[in-house]
Amino acid sequence: MAESRLERVLSAGLSIAGVAMALMVGYRMFVAPPATGDLMSAPPRKVADWNAIKSAGRALGRESAPITLVEYSDLQCPACKGFEENLKKIQAKYPGKINQLVVHFPLQMHRQAVPAARAAECAGKQGMFGNMKDQLFASQDSLGVLSWTIAAKRAGVSDTVAFQTCMRDTTQVAAIENGLKSGQANNVTGTPTVIVNGWRFQVAPNADRLETTLVALMEGKSPPGTSWYQRFVSR
To answer: Phi and psi of 59, rounded to 5°?
Structure first.
């Protein structure tokens, strides 16, 4: 009798353990973030507040483009410079297909990141935001040494007096503050953080992976590597 009761207890315990193991596997497959070593290959995840994220960015493309790519960016960040170089090559292959939205997220470790973001915004008042962004990335090693005005001239800013006045202004720049708030609200901890059509990468993709993802999205498909569960919950 005692042995029978013990068998029932052990059987129930094994059943509970089996259910717990199944739940753990399911969590790891569909909910839990991937291990650090897997981040480079981890599939992107759908974000919940895509429209709010888009509103924090400065557009460098057509709103009607089939691809909207949000990049939380730091102009002193070497990884951001590398990502931009890859993105430009892809943009050249698919002209007019990508609307890039740049969201300022200057990191505290980069002393020139905030002044650089301000310089880009000051140039943007003269329609040269994109040019200034490119110029600052091109001269990234000289940030803080190269005059902001010289950089602006190289970027095509014509009214350098207005640009200098803008740079001397000590009030907060709304675009920078909004970018920081957006990043903090969405747990952005590093740059570049990339979100494409609402799909957020764990780590900024390399050129091949980015292009593969963009092509899939342009064809109306989900990003490669996403599971049926991720596609289901993103509807």
So the answer is: -75, 135
Structure tokens at 126: 């003269």
- Are the CB atoms for 190 and 198 separated by under 8 Å? no
Contacts for 167 with CB less than 8 Å, ≥ 6 apart? 115, 118, 119, 122, 148, 149
DSSP character string of 156-184: T-S-HHHHHHHHH--SPPHHHHHHHHHHH
* pLDDT for the residue 228: 47
pTM of the model: 0.81
Is the pLDDT reported for residue 202 higher than 50? yes
Closest CA to 99 of 61, 53, 50: 61
Amino acid sitting at position 21? M
Chain-centroid distance of CA 16 in Å reads 41
Architecture of domain 42-233 in CATH? 3-Layer(aba) Sandwich (3.40)
- Beta-carbon count within 10 A of 158 CB: 11
Q: Is the pLDDT of residue 6 over 80?
A: no
Is 146 strand, coil or helix?
strand
Q: Examine the pLDDT at 218 and tell me if it is beyond 80.
A: yes
CB burial readout 8-22, b (16+ within 10 A) else e:
eeeeeeeeeeeeeee
Q: Rounded mean pLDDT of 93-110?
A: 97
Residue 16, φ and ψ in degrees, nearest 5 = -65, -40
